[in-house]
Design goal:
This protein is mainly beta. The chain has one domain: Maltoporin, Chain A (Beta Barrel). Helix content is 6%, strand content 57%. It is built from 7 helices and 45 strands. The strands form 10 sheets. It has a 22-stranded antiparallel β-barrel. A 5-stranded mixed β-sheet has the order 3-8-9-6-7. A 3-stranded antiparallel β-sheet has the order 16-44-41, with no helix packed on it. The longest helix has 11 residues. The radius of gyration is 26 Å and the shape is globular.
């Protein structure tokens, strides 16, 4: 795991400990040392120990061993990585190192790139949060902290998360099956399962791999409006097919096809009320049911990788396509009274239920070509070209028969929009080794992007009119040619110690607000790009013949023209604030003092604040206007930590283990300078134990052992006159859950 030290401890660590960086231990009970991890974070195959970047990497074996099945499980054990959004699932709002200005991402480009076999999953304007692709049959997950614009482009402003899937094994037939059942306290049962089949078609030349999975996660929040208990379940079905051909030692080709259908029930209101009303009749958490929606996200992904190796060069082509369909359907109980309030000035506020539906259909195509040097010479380099085309269209319709007597129509909201993003880039990075111990790396990415939007806005709520002539049309186009450099210097005292420093830049594209300056909103039509510089020093090391690994870094971030999620009385929008400074320390350590004991700990300490007064920022939680130098950013914890201990022991001649874990998330707020609704500030624990009988394994677990009521995100109360748009809510972690997993391999 990874630890972040204060600057004063950093020098001492370098002298006393011979440091290392962000390494997952791997699971190998028969070994007396920790397994070394090989990563491709720099688009070259390197030991994690040697990469001068802040990285946490976990192998698929480790992820399976600790029961990680989704994106939130990666977040829970990676300090610096956070999700202050509206729960997990498809509402995840990824942040790294506190580079965020609120719990709501909106339609902005994320500050963290989510990459699936190097395909950017969620470019600009996708909305609805990160795609929660399940962690099933994964070779490795890499979390790269700090901007990754040089190699991965826009959207990696604060970092990147890379899923690398398992590819076919061309040498042997194999497979595995897993089923899990669990019960959540004051909630419903959950069931899941997956199957993996690997088959060589032509030994060492052609093979296929098939993965299928199903997750039914029971809910635990009661809906007071409908009277439904456990109203927030999720259901995810998916499959992946991979085929790899290697006709000779020089050429290989691989095709990966992935499909996932994920449904979050009660997805727009998956939080629990901050204060539970008395006499509700439910023993667990409750929600008001104002927004009662089903959010469904379907992803169809294809990735084709071609590689040809010469003696000194390697050529790689990666072509990807992602079809992404997001739909929200359901009812709400505030549009009707809000419409009546606006239309009559409060004279006739009537209750009612609104039918509401919205959808976003998009597709993403990328093409990357790379040429890289091979060998262990003093000069290594990578150069490439990249093209991205992303397009999405969507809209929202809200209507209700109850409103016809008031406005003469059921047309409450009528919104149609189309977003587009194109990017073409050239990038390169080179490393020169001198005096056998120093590595100087320099690289840059020059991109040219175009972001466009066409928006038709109508209906009574957006424009206070149902007449066709009142519809507004917005055309938006933005061009940019950002340059993202990275420079690092690494010093290798010996093979087990790397000290480094680096400077890197990242950027995020601008965009357009869906409803701007209509219906009295007085909001800006567009918002500009933002960018940051990250300055970092770090150390990575191994000690005691590989029995201990550790990593540490100190960083400082200068963030300009920051994109801010704002709100007026009729909705959310995005604007730009002035500047922010963020700095902190990170540290991770793993140890295997004896062959039967594995220990680890990680933590982050940080400070994230406005660095220049800005009197124009309207603050959603408090209604205050303006931010000042030193104001703490919202949704940015100042501390995170996690730890684990695992004991391996024999059970009737077989291998058994018990693993205990604990994690802590620091305090967060929905508004600047510790204002708004407070969340975070909680610890949670878990315990797992199992026996490996060779061809099959039995594992029992308890998650959230102390039944913490901690919240990872929050929603402020919002009223328009007497109409409640949203009550104050918290997005709490799942209550104590007890379960059993059966796994078989062949």
């Amino acid at each position: 795991m990874k630890i972040i030290l204060s600057a004063s401890l950093f020098a001492a660590a370098c002298c006393m400990v011979q440091p290392s960086f962000a390494q997952s231990p791997g699971v190998n009970a028969s070994s007396d040392t920790l397994a070394e991890i090989v990563v491709t974070a720099t688009k070259r195959t390197e030991r994690l120990q040697d990469v001068p970047v802040s990285i946490t990497a976990e192998t698929g074996v480790e992820l399976e061993h600790r029961g990680a099945t989704q994106l939130q499980d990666i977040i829970n054990t990676t300090p610096g990585l956070n999700n202050p959004g509206s729960g997990g699932g498809n509402s995840t709002n990824l942040t790294i190192r506190g580079v965020t200005t609120g719990t709501d991402l909106g339609l902005k480009q994320s500050t963290v790139a989510l990459l699936y076999d190097d395909m950017p999953i969620d470019p600009v304007g996708q909305g609805g949060g990160a795609s929660n692709l399940r962690v099933v049959d994964i070779e490795r997950v890499e979390v790269l902290r700090g901007p990754q614009g040089t190699l991965f482009g826009s959207g990696s402003l604060a970092g990147a998360i890379r899923y690398i899937t398992n590819k076919p094994d061309l040498s042997q037939f194999s497979g595995s099956v897993e089923v899990t059942g669990a019960q959540t306290e004051t909630g419903a049962a959950s069931f899941s399962g997956y199957a993996v089949l690997n088959a060589p078609i032509i030994e060492n030349e052609l093979g296929v791999r098939l993965v299928a999975y199903d997750y039914d996660d029971g809910g635990w929040i009661a809906n007071l409006l409908t009277g439904q208990a456990n109203s927030n379940p999720t259901k995810t079905d998916g499959a992946r097919f991979s085929i790899t051909a290697k006709p000779n030692d020089q050429f290989s080709a691989g095709l990966v096809l992935t499909y996932q259908d994920s449904k979050d029930y009660n997805g727009e209101d998956a939080g629990s009320l901050l204060v539970k009303p008395p006499g509700t009749g439910f023993s667990g958490q409750v929600t008001d049911g104002i927004n009662d929606y089903l959010i469904e996200l379907k992803s169809t992904i294809a990735a084709l990788t071609l590689q040809y190796d010469w003696d000194s060069l390697a050529f790689t082509s990666v072509s990807t396509y992602h079809d992404r369909k997001s739909n929200l359907t359901g009812t709400d109980s505030y549009f009707v009274p809000l419409t009546a309030l606006i239309a009559t000035g409060g004279a006739n506020i009537i209750p009612g239920i609104t039918r509401d539906a919205s959808g976003i259909d998009g597709n993403i195509y990328t093409q990357e070509l790379r040429l890289a040097s091979k060998g262990d010479g003093n000069f290594k380099w990578t150069a490439g070209a990249f093209f991205l085309h992303a397009s999405q269209g969507g809209g929202q319709e809200a209507d209700s028969d109850a409103i016809i007597p008031i406005i003469g129509s059921d047309n409450i909201v009528d919104l149609i929009y189309h977003f587009g993003q194109q990017e073409i880039a050239a990038f390169g990075e080179a490393t020169y080794t001198f005096a056998d111990k120093w590595d100087l790396t320099g690289g840059a990415r020059v991109s040219h992007y175009m972001v466009s939007a066409q928006i038709n806005t109508g209906g009574f709520i957006p424009v206070f009119s149902i007449l066709p002539s009142a519809y507004t049309h917005t055309d938006f186009h933005d061009l940019g040619t950002p340059v993202d450099p990275r420079v690092s210097l690494a010093y290798r005292l010996d093979p087990d110690l790397t000290l480094y420093t680096q400077v890197a830049r990242g950027y995020r594209v601008g965009g357009v607000n869906l409803t701007s300056d209509v219906g009295g909103r007085n909001t800006p039509q567009t918002y500009a790009p933002d960018s940051l510089w990250n300055y970092e020093i770090g150390a990575k090391g191994r000690m005691f013949d590989g029995r201990l690994t550790y990593s540490t870094d100190f960083y400082y971030i200068d963030w300009k023209n920051i994109q801010v999620s704002l709100q007026n009385q009729l909705g959310n929008y995005t604007g730009n604030a002035s500047e922010a400074r963020l700095y902190g320390v990170e540290f991770q350590v793993d140890a295997k003092p004896v062959s039967w004991l594995l220990l680890g700990a990680a933590f982050q300490l940080s400070k994230n604040e406005i660095s220049k007064d800005d009197p124009t920022v309207s603050r959603p939680a408090t209604g205050l206007v303006g931010v000042q130098d030193g104001d703490v950013l919202p949704a940015a914890p100042e501390g995170q930590a996690s730890t684990y201990a695992e004991v391996d022991f024999p059970v009737a001649g077989y291998q058994g283990y018990v693993r205990a874990t604990a994690s802590y998330l620091g305090d967060e707020w929905t508004d600047f300078e510790h204002n708004g609704t407070k969340f975070g500030g909680f610890a949670t624990e878990g315990i797992r134990g199992g026996v490996n009988f060779g061809s099959y394994e039995v594992v029992a677990f308890i998650n959230n052992l102390s039944n913490s009521q901690g919240a990872t995100g929050a929603l402020d109360a919002q009223l328009v006159g007497p109409v409640v748009i949203n009550n104050q809510e918290l997005f709490r972690i799942r209550p104590r859950t007890v379960g059993l997993t059966l796994r078989a391999r062949f």
